Amino acid sequence: MRGFFISVEGSDGSGKSTQIKKIEEYLKSRNQEILLTREPGGTLISEKIRELLLDPTNKEMTAKTEMLLYAGARTQHLEEFILPNLQQGRSILSDRFTDSSIAYQGFGRGLGDMVAEVNYIATGGISPDITFFLDLSPEAGIARKKAEVDHTMDRLELEKQEFHQRVYDGYKALCNLHEQRICRIDASQSVDAVFAEIKESLDRLFGF
Ligand code: TMP
User: Fold this and answer.
1) What whole-number distance in Å separates Cα of residue 69 and Cα of residue 101?
2) Which of 27, 69, 139, 157 has fewest C-beta within 10 Å?
């Protein structure tokens, strides 16, 4: 049987990493073979593209270049890692997928529908079985990131408040568009309360 493809989305500082660890632990405790991965990244080539994308010194990068690099990293990740593993029955837990490009490049950078078109080419229209969107206001998210000890802000996190607000609006639009796939979760709740909601959906998906 093919594995399940799960993605976690959210603005910077929404608590994705904490919840991803909890999802992984939970599914392993249920004897599921689950592989943790991230975007941009997940393969050697995609991780190299990630370095280019997040390097704060790459100030000249244009919005279209950025969109294409994210899409390139995604194709490589999908073809080299995600699809072969799903086909062999393993489940994939990805920190971000195409929704991030729609929110950040489509809404944040203002590239609009072009982003969905390019990503259709990059993914052949493949999308996760379920997506958890951790909903936290951009102000609260960026404040959390800044408060983290030893955290160096990357090129995207350094963007203006208005950019992060547009990204957030993009996520809201995606939630409305894909009601079946995207579970919106109030990420201002405690870690345990957020996970309790996620767990409910996972139990349904895996049939526990
Ligand atoms: P991360 O900090 O969650 O690892 O994500 C890296 C940054 O890249 C984050 O600021 C969101 C951004 N991003 C995009 O702008 N477009 C994308 O398609 C992806 C996957 C991430």
Assistant:
1) 10
2) 139
